[in-house]
């Protein structure tokens, strides 16, 4: 693909950028060409190097979650800046971005001026836009990662990625790894070194929490019903792994010589798991809920227990730009199991996106990739 040529904010790429449009469950994606892109101040056009399939993408195409349609899915990707809007753009760390920079970006774009943004909650901005989650619209057709290019809006957190970092590590950072950093940040900032941490759910978020907390010196226990995931959690740093089907969590922790956790991260979304973490937390502990992103059964809360045990419950949904910066910094400095494990088990060209989604739905790979340059 030839370099982008621009005049003021108008950008022309030859051949035209393409995006895969999702319409409804059971219908194949359709490819559209986007002949020209108009970049406004603070915006950028990025050529996608590699995208990965998130579980939420799978749930959308299967009809298990609501999604505006038609639209371009995908929000885990890494790429290079090929054009900048008037005045350029800056990264999360304040550096001026340049053509050719290798970058990842936040799943959200925020206004920076509303009450929520000013309170430090840009991920819940009143004017929030989400990559891979919006209805297709004229002027922002390249709004998701399942495309050759993505049009980054002003208010997007952009983070530069080291050249040496594998794309398979960088792409998921803009979802699971950054969310894991946000979950640990929500733990209240208590030192992780020497702390007992409990993680429920060994999907990508749970594994990332495990790796980051372990690298910081925490003793991590992971609970998951799948034996393959439990084995993977060990390789990501879990000291102890438990099967929730083997009995009450408190009893299992005691039987394995584990103390009550000062920090618990619930990444599965199962109501029983939420309940178990609330019941086993140490006095003064924090329970962070990350996995409960879909409607499900209610969990009864004992207010007396909350008060007397000084418990804190925090919800985490999406993340702030600083968390994505933290994710890339961690992967660059301490890749550990992320680099050792084969996180991406299969890769497909962009025009085989439907096949990639079917493979991802089978659940045999941690992540499935989409390579816009593959044929």
From TrEMBL:
**Alcohol dehydrogenase-like N-terminal domain spans which residues?**
41-162
Boundaries of each Alcohol dehydrogenase-like C-terminal domain copy?
205-332
Pfam families associated with the record: ADH_N, ADH_zinc_N
Q: Show the GO MF annotations.
A: alcohol dehydrogenase (NAD+) activity; metal ion binding
**Top-level taxonomic group:** Bacteria
**Assigned EC number:** 1.1.1.1
UniProt keywords, alphabetically? Metal-binding, NAD, Oxidoreductase, Zinc
- GO CC terms for this protein? cytoplasm
Cofactor(s) recorded for this entry are: Zn(2+)
Q: Does the keyword ATP-binding apply?
A: no
Record-stated family: Belongs to the zinc-containing alcohol dehydrogenase family.
Q: What is this protein called?
A: alcohol dehydrogenase
